[in-house]
Every structure is written in C-alpha cells, then in structure tokens.
Amino acid sequence: MSNYVEMWKDLGMDLENHDNLCAVLPVAFGDVYLSQENRPEGMGFWDFVVSEIHGIRPAELVEARKNGQKVFGTFCVYVPDEVVIAANGIVTGLCGGSQFWVPDGEKVLPKSTCPLIKASVGARLGKTCPFFRLADMYVGETTCDGKKKAWEILGEDVPMHIMDIPQMKRAEDIERWAGEIKKFAKVVEELTGNEITIEKLNEAIKTVNEKRKAMARVYEARKAEKLPISGKDALLMSQIAFFDDPTRCAQMCNKLADELDKRIEDGVSVFPAGTKRILLTGTPLAIPNWKLHHIVETSGAAVVCEEMCTGTRYFENLVDDSCQTLDEAYMALAQRYMKTNCACFTPNTGRIDDLVRLAKEYKVDGVIDVNLKFCCLYDTEGYNVEKAMKAAGIPVLGIETDYTDTDAEQLKTRVQAFVEMLG
Question: Can you say whether residue 278 is alpha, beta or left, with left for phi > 0 and alpha for psi between -120 and 50 degrees?
Fold first, then answer.
C-alpha cells in the first residue's frame, strides 16, 4: 500500500505508527484466511480489498470529496444509510476491530470499557485509520453508555450527530424513531447542501435493499448440507460491506452467491462430511476481528451463521421503496430498523425468537454466545440466551473475550470440548 503514502500524509495520519499496523495485518490475514483450502474464487475481491484496506476505498472517498460529496462515518447498523445516499452523500464504517488501537483508546477511556469502543476512539486519536480522517461527520447512536460518552470525545474535533434510539419497541417508540430519522435527514441536507426528495429516497432504499438481498443470498448458501464457503469468508464479506460502495458490494455478493449456488449443485464443500455446524451470536465482530471464527473452524466445526450486527441483523428485513411521501418513507425506515434486535432493548424477546429460528434454518448443532469484555448488555442477556437455547434443546456455550490473543489457547480448548460434546 506504499502508493498511498502521500494521501495518508494529506490526511494527517501518523505514518510511522500506521506502518506498524500495515506490517501486522497481512501476516494475520495470511494465517487466518490464505491458509484455507478450496476457497471460492469470488473471495478474491474481498482478499484484494483487505490487501488495500487503507488505500483503495479511502482514495475513492478522497476523490468523491474533491467532487463535493460528503462522507458520513457510522458505527452502528441503526444509522439509516438510505438517508445519506438520498442526499448524494457517502456512508463508511469506521475502524474498531483490532487490539492495535486499544492502547490509544485507553488514554482517554477507562480500561473497563469494551474493546470495540476503545479501539474506535484509539483509531481516531492515534491517527492510524484513514476512514476516521476522511469523515466530514460522525453519526453516533445511544445503544450503550460507553458509546454515549465516547461520542463526546470523538465530537471534539469532528462534527458529531447522535441519534437517540428508543429503548423499547412500542408503537410510540417506533414513531419516535421515525422522528429521529427525519431530524437526521435535515442534518444530512444541511451538510451536503442537497435536498432529499421522496424520489431520491425511494431510489436510495432500492440501492440498499439490493445489497441486503445479495448478502442474504450468500447466507442462504450456508444453509446447504455441504457448505460451499467457510464462516470466516462469509464474515469477511459482511465486514467489508460496511465500507464498500453499496452498488459494487451488491454486485460482488451476487457474483459470489452465483458461484456458491454452482458449488452446491456440484456437491463442493469446504468442510469434511459430518462437521458440526455452529451459530455465533452476540457482540459484533468488526474488521479485523477474525479470532473466534478461526478458533471454531480450526477446532473441528464450521460457523454457518452469525446472529450479530456483522451478520443477519445487518441485512435481514427490507424497506418499502414505494412510499408516496417523505414522512411515509421515514416511518418505513423506522419500522425496518427497529426490527433489529440489539441487546440495548428491553424486553428483547425478538432476539431469542431470531436465534431459535436461525438455529433451525441453518440446521445448527450448537450455539456459541460471544461477548466482548465489559459489554454488560450482551453479557446480561446471555442468561436469557442460554435459557432459551436449553429449552429448545440446542447446546450452547458462553464465551467472554477481547481482542488480545492471550486467551486463544484457553478458548480453543473450550471450543474443542464443546464440539466434542456435540457428539
């Protein structure tokens, strides 16, 4: 990625520290991904994106900004991309999945903050993530207390808009969320200088719906008895989807899905017959957090589904693209996004229903509930997850971890024992 040095300089990045990050990532990616056998050819696109993760897409965003477009950096699946796209803005995810960024985050945050938040703040303050440098505005939300306070720090030198997510899902809460989306639309219009019309919003909804449908096709292939793709590769697709152009992402996901359908037809599998099928649930796995997938898939099992924000929550449920007024469209967006079952809600029975449904659809042998350390929401909800899985007769293993590798061997021992217990 040496061709991008001048761009990184212009973005005010810490080049020396960034070089240290760039030296580590290829080795980790090679160990986890390129060591796999019989991968789908379509994964070449995502391999290339990772090899240029801080280069090719940031370069596109730099050019877009030169042409007057605004970039919105987001942290959460509740932020409606459709609104930004309707105003000719660009949405990008932000870095936050590596231990590399945690020390810089701990300079301003308590160590007892979850690693995802510490890494995100550290990536910005340490000046080692170009996406943080490129965003004209950050868009936060109120999904947890740690994030709420992190927004105050991140908003000190970049405009920050915070969307207040209701904590329940009553009719009045969905209406209030529609109001938040409407307020966000006004903010987006002001920053971009572009008016959002119902025609533009419906078109943006169609664009994002197409990406969701394409990603769902890849996940559908994972329901096959003979698995045509590893869980690690499917996770990589989901992680990159947060950063990539939505139209291109849909095209590449559909291309991959076509190949997977042909593999299923030909009986091609990347795992031996009888490999135990695991559903992962819990906190999101931001790029480059591939730790648990790698442990599971080198312990005699296969990850066939993720009930996570970097999984089914990201693409399930479409938005009505035929609304006649903006208010109708904002309500349609609110209804779709409020179907996402984050642990921040109470009660959150919808997530339990999703887990039971997905376990059946993907024919899983067991569920692993993974919680990032200090995420009290998912940690507490683990009680209901375990109870529901036991009631449904589905073996479940609860795991707490962070971004370090210090617990890798211990986790591998626990996962191997769990897989053996599945018989």
Answer: beta
CA distance 298 to 165: 38
Q: For residue 42, give every residue at least 6 positions away whose Cβ sits within 8 Å of its Cβ, in sequence order, or none.
A: 252, 255, 256, 259, 260
* H or E segment and range at residue 401: strand 396-401
The pLDDT score that the predictor gives to residue 3 is 87
Token pair belonging to 168: 């329940």
d(CA 98, CA 404): 8
3-state secondary structure at position 161: strand
Helices and strands of the chain, counted as H and E runs: 19, 8
pLDDT digits (tens, 9 = 90+) for 9-40: 999 999 999 999 999 898 999 999 999 999 99
407 neighbors 297 (Cβ within 8 angstroms) = no
DSSP three-state, residue 371: strand
Strands 160-163 and 90-93: what pairing? unpaired
Supply 301's token pair: 């099992």
Report helix angle 376-391 to 349-361, nearest 10: 50
Which parts of 198-290 fold into alpha helices (H)?
A: 198-221, 231-241, 246-266
Contact 25, 290 (CB under 8 A): no
Residue owning tokens 């090679």: 30
Do the Cβ atoms of 288 and 25 come closer than 8 Å? Answer: yes
